[in-house]
Design brief:
Blueprint: H1 3-9, E1 11-16, H2 34-52, E2 59-65, E3 71-80, E4 85-86, H3 99-112, H4 139-143, H5 156-159, H6 171-179, H7 195-209, H8 213-222
Parallel strand pairs: 1-2
Antiparallel strand pairs: 2-3, 3-4
């Protein structure tokens, strides 16, 4: 399996040991404790098996910080299966769903610039794809995962595909497939995390800026904040 494939399967986890409430005895658990580290290792290995499918997740990097400022950063498995190279803190990971944070940040900047409001209906934007009930779904509800729209990556069309790390999707096609499915609930009735919401938010950004999401994120956030490894 190539490094690209490994990167698609690897997970980066950031955990924190909560400090004790003010006034309570003791300073809280420490990651320097052998028993705490053993518990962390057991939890990670359990999840590697749980989320790995037929075999454990190939490589995972975790970081745990306690209330005293101590840290435990450790790699599990391999960054490169063929070469048997161990996972380490020097490895890079696909940004994955952390992209959603950047998408929201760009949209909030556009709100500040007066290009939209959070309570604008989805129907206001020309996105090149039809979404039923769009006049009753707001930008805010998309951001908060409260649109009720079906998960684009769980549609019959996607489930029939042989998806690879190099597979390229058309967001409009994915959204159209999701729109063919019955919504989970009426807009703003409940919460359910689905990627369909953020595929639509990405198209809204492109509609308003006449630019790609990638370029907007890069020029508005990545470059100004010096995120040289993002």
């Amino acid at each position: 399996m190539s490094r690209v494939s490994i990167a698609a399967l690897a997970a980066a986890l950031v955990l924190c040991l909560s400090p004790r409430p003010a006034g309570s005895a003791g300073a809280g658990p420490s990651v320097n404790s052998a028993s705490v580290r053993a518990a962390i290792v057991a939890a990670v290995e359990k999840d590697r098996k749980l989320f790995g499918g037929k075999t454990p997740v190939p490589g995972v990097l975790i970081g745990v910080w306690d209330s005293q400022g101590n840290s435990y950063v450790h790699g599990f498995g391999y960054a490169d299966l063929k070469a048997k190279r161990a996972m380490s803190a020097a490895d890079h990971f696909r940004i994955g769903s952390n992209t959603k944070t950047f998408v929201v940040a760009v949209l909030l900047q556009l709100v500040d610039e007066g290009k939209l409001t959070l309570d604008d209906p989805l129907s206001r934007f020309s996105l090149g794809v039809k979404v039923p009930n769009a006049e009753h779904i707001t930008v805010r509800e998309l951001m908060e995962m409260r649109s009720g729209l079906f998960e684009a990556y769980d549609t019959p069309q996607v489930n029939k595909m042989e998806v690879k790390p190099t597979t390229v999707f058309d967001p409009r096609e994915l959204i159209a497939w999701a729109a063919q499915q019955k919504p989970y609930f009426a807009p703003n009735a409940e919460y359910k995390y689905t990627n369909t919401n953020y595929l639509l938010l990405g198209l809204i950004i492109e509609s308003l800026t006449h630019d790609t999401v990638e370029h907007q994120v890069t020029t508005r956030l990545v470059e100004p904040f010096g995120l040289t490894h993002t």
